[in-house]
Batch of 2 targets.
Target 1
Amino acid sequence: MQQALQNMKVIDLTQVLAGPYCTMVLGDLGADVIKVEKYPHGDDSRIMGPYVEEESYSYMMANRNKRGIRLNIKEEAGLGILLDLVKTADVFIENFRPGVTKKLGIDYETLRQLNPGLIYCSISGYGQTGPYSQKGGYDIMAQGLSGLMSMTGEKNGRPVKNGIAIHDIAAGMTAIYSILAAYIHKLSTGEGQYIDLSLVDSGLAWTVWESAAYFGAGEVSRANGSAHRVTAPYQGFPTKNGHILVGAGNQKLWEKFCRDVIEREELIHDPRFLTNSERQANLEELEQVIQDVLIQEDSQHWLTKLDEAGVPSSPIYSYDEALNDPHIRSRDMVIEYDHPLGGRIESLGFPAKMSKTPGQVKRPAPLLGQHTKEVLAELQYSEEKIRALEENKII
């Protein structure tokens, strides 16, 4: 089956999550991704559990659809191999701390001399410029600097880290669409370009409503539990046996909720709750009124009534419940494929369902150095030269 990026070749020098997530998606869409892992131990995520037959499941999750080589680029011969690969590539992506690629001789200005059409993407914690550019930056530091942690958690509580590595994934997503835009430009002009993006910038760009509140009214968004900052009731509530989400996000839905779900029609005319503005201004009282009703029955009772009334709702799942929900499964968001050591493994599926060029799993995450000899043979390296490189611990 045809894939959209089947003619794109990517050299991937990233590790852990942001960069690997980007190149995994490019690979899912058909790109030939060659993952270059450092010699001798490879991607740092290889030491993250859990393990299946001594292979990291964390590594496997973010590195499918790639060919893997293990290469010592600190040695001249190893650097030479990487430069030979660059000559054949459309995209080069790295996540070293700013300045390291210059020391290694693989910075953009150097590589563009070999390949003027190269799209070169750098992912770092804080970006290549600015007063913090030389600082090391992980996802949690980006969550702190972007203000995200101050807006996450319960009201008046301690700052809370988001449950997922949200800035890492934001950076990966930003890299994907930036690379695709640069690739479209290259297809029409032949020109490559440099892409500088950071974990901080990528996650900050997602704070749309929060920045609107600040720029428009000088309001500083704070942690508010599951409640929405401008709409009510739009949040989680306890029930007799758990918690559910209620999304009565406009006046019509609010009135349906009162009349058909909790059967408290008088609340529609209560001056405290007449409009969304009043409901937001009196949120604590509103929460208490709704909670006093919902706590009387179990979650499924209310979810059924909410569905019947056409009011958006959802259970609040644990992660195992989410992955085993029949809707999630029916959408193929959990898939299976074979791994040479792990056997039949499960992974996340493709969120976009494309009718002509769908995502596919063509290969599992590579074993460390699995495709080194194959890739070198494609570069016309002789068997004798490959053996010598192996003996000298270059590959």
Note: The two ends are 33 Å apart (CA to CA).
Target 2
Amino acid sequence: MTSPPAAASPAALPSAPRVIAAIGGIYVAQSVIGGVTFTGLPAVLRSAGLSLGEIGLIFLTVLPWSFKFLWAPAVERYRLPPGRPHRSRAVVAIGGAIATAALALAGLFGPAALGPLVVCLVVAAFATATVDIACDGYAVESLADRHRGWGNAAQVGGAYMGSAIGGGLFLVLVDYVGWGPATWAMCGVLVALGALFVFGRDGRPAVPADARRPSLLAALKRPEVRAGLALTALFVAGQKWILLVLGPFLVDAGLGLSTIGVLNGVGATGAGLLGALMGGVVVRRFGAERMAVAALGLQCALAAALAACALFGVRDPWLLGAIVIANSAVMALGFVALYARLMGYASPAQAGVDFTLFQCMDGIVSLIGWYLAGYLADSFGYAASFALATGVALLASATLPILFARADRSVAAASA
């Protein structure tokens, strides 16, 4: 039996707003790198004359995020040494330094040296994925149930904000000052965003000397983790499967690239931030489960509206734009609710491992869904693809309460 951790002085513990601000800075920083890699860099490479096949190499940087569960136990063993203080800040500092150095080196190579540039970005992705393991574990340990909605609002909102900086501001800087200075400016942003976490106060007690060794097997043995993985798979399938074909559908519906760019860059980003903030409020007031199911219901309605537009040839840009913006807000709210509940299923003894498993399930189901949605759209048309998304969202909204109840019973039994 694992000994309970020693009590820490309440005055020594960081306040919830400070924890949320610290992890929010890390989440924004991670998404800055993602925005540079997946939004900014492809545009720069294309403007430099590179082929789409060559540009596709940058998606190698997805691999560390998809498979970070493989080294999450090693990270947790270092972060939570038995009988010694937590090392969350050390992991974030080391990983952040490596990511910043890799991005700075990418600024020296420039877009013409695609091979070395991709290597730098893969290293940066590996480092930030590792930081994410520690940051998520820290968030689960440090936030009480009533504050977890705000913690996940920081996570989801930070992703939107970071993507706007890395995919928007970065391109403006490249246009005005060139690749190198723009990349190094992003490095400065990373350092500033990580400072609050790295230099913040952490008054949590030392890890018990007889604490269990974090492992994937220990996570998968717990029924609440298995239920959480099923919850994640269902929810992500219901929420994300329309994303891949949404952009091509808008193009084929007659919307110009500039219009789509404004929709995605301003409308969808703003709606996503608003949805994340709303999520923090409504999750605390109405509960994570109710909001997650409600978000899936709204997603079902939006997917059905897109299916109807595709089936009947509706091309009204205002209507399609409203659906895109609403979809972004609903998705952000839903993921705040889902991950707030998933935090409760992660064991404090290895929160980084458990929460990483949930996130990797998110990524795997997204990839499968995007392939299926793209195949259906290509073979049978957009209406069939959006109809599939509608059906999956409907199935998920009906099944989610059952899985929530099963997971909650497992948590209650484990704490009895």
Note: Confidence is low (pLDDT under 50) at residues 1-11.
